[in-house]
User: What shape does this take?
Amino acid sequence: MKTVRCKFLPYFYVLVTIFCIANTGNGESEKLEELARKILALEQKIIDKKKVLQNRSIEKGGRKEKTVETEVVSPTEIGADRPDISTPTSNSALNLSDSIDIPTDDNWYKSDDFSFSIDPKNHFSVSLGLVIPGDTSTSKGTELNFDTGVKIGFDYQRSFTDRSYIGAGIGFRSFNASGNLSPPHAQPPLTNQSIKYEGDCSMLSLHATLGQNWSLSNQLSLLTQASAGLANSDYNFEYKWTSPIPPRNESGTSFYYSFLLGLNLQLNRTWYSSIYYELDGRSEVEGLDYQTFHQIGLRSGLSF
Assistant: This one.
């Protein structure tokens, strides 16, 4: 006797059962199990039909002694805890659309369980913002004024199932200084005089990030973020005076901090954009007091 085993049916049932338990409620699970029973019944009918046709062919050829007896392994033989599957009495055609709601790429994010921090988990973004430097002063107490500048940043984030994330980033800020100042080391010494100055200033920051996305709708979320790291500042001043005065440079590395609040829009599975406000600053460096910055910017990112 030659035994033909139908290996497709047990594995199909295992996959359907796991899918039912993991992703559906009681109502949807019953629909999927009903679909599985219909498919199993249809497969059994096909096997039985093949067996009948095969026996008829053997009888016509006068070779009944070579009749092939087909044995179908029932899915219930695999696993003692497997629920019993009975053959449905109805012979109606299968309607997959009534049993399974299959999402498409266009509406995958419309589920109530949507969260871009769950799938995918990695995010790389580029930000561009308008920087408004706060005033600071020299170590001798002289006030320094600055013009509006620009900031560009690059960030990587790794998110978790609760929509929180950690990451790291780098940011570069460029802005100008202008005002009046009594320069050091002037010859002869200047007293009770004010000299106009101009300068190019920059700050490069390296920081670690901790943040949270708070869901507002299927695609919109509130973004809160805090960062800390190091900043390298470089301030150059040139003096406008009748006699040559050496330029002044103040630079150094200091502690950096940042607090960010924004709105994040998930465009699709891959792209997202944000608008944000950021308050950041640095601690004291040699020759300069601490300084804060206000920023308003846009961020666009890639999820993978």
Q: What stands out?
A: The helical segments are 8-23, 26-60, 96-99. The beta strands are 122-133, 136-137, 143-144, 149-159, 164-181, 195-215, 220-240, 248-266, 271-282, 291-303. The chain has a mean pLDDT of 76.
